[in-house]
Amino acid sequence: MNQQSDSENRQMRLIMQVAVVLIFASLMATFIWYFEDGEENMQEITLNLLAEEMARSVVSARWQWEAEGRPPRILQVQYDREGNETDRRPIPMSHLGWPKVEPNAEGCDQLWKTVLNTPMQVGSFKVYGEFFDGVKMSGKALDSMCRFRVSTGPYFDYRIYTGQVIKH
């Protein structure tokens, strides 16, 4: 009887250990899913903020281009809230008055670096710049755009001939 009782006890301990492992694994899977979902939201929020910053910068460049008599290049100066200069950078302008973009992915990357003056990164994720030719998409050159995206996540578009920033 003692041997049967020991066998039953071992079986019961094994069942308990398996149950504990299963509960622990399901809790870990839930936490991983929760934190993954939160990180995607953080990417979207950060990319939206960068889209707003790009929209402000290109409009500012447009006004400065007009005020300076439509030169081929402007020197954009950034200030902090106290009025101290924080950054200055040259921006080549198109004949339409928007920051000039070469019609390829490298041109989109250069636009990001010139207008935003930040690395092409959101957190630890790389931002990809893609060029879409408006003539090939819709038959209209004015629809040409750069898309800035995080691998499989959020993105925004910049229409290179109209200066419009479109958040998705």
Short overview:
The chain has 168 residues and is α+β, with helices and mostly antiparallel strands.
Question: How would you describe this structure to a colleague?
Answer:
With 168 residues, the protein is of the alpha+beta class. It has 3 helices and 7 strands. It has helices spanning 2-67, 105-116, 134-138, and strands at residues 73-79, 85-92, 121-122, 125-132, 145-150, 155-159, 165-167. Strands 3-4-5-6-7 form a 5-stranded antiparallel β-sheet. A two-stranded antiparallel ribbon has the order 1-2. The N and C termini lie far apart (71 Å).
The largest pleated sheet is described as: 5 strands, antiparallel
Distance between the termini: 71 Å
How many individual β-strands?
A: 7
Mean pLDDT score: 87
Taking pLDDT < 50 over at least 5 consecutive residues as the criterion, the unreliable ranges are: none
Instruction: List the total number of helices.
Output: 3
For the biggest β-sheet, the strand order reads: 3-4-5-6-7
Give the CA-based shape.
elongated
Any idea what the radius of gyration is? 27 Å
Percent of residues in β-strands: 15-25%
Structural class determined from secondary elements: alpha+beta
SSE succession: HEEHEEHEEE
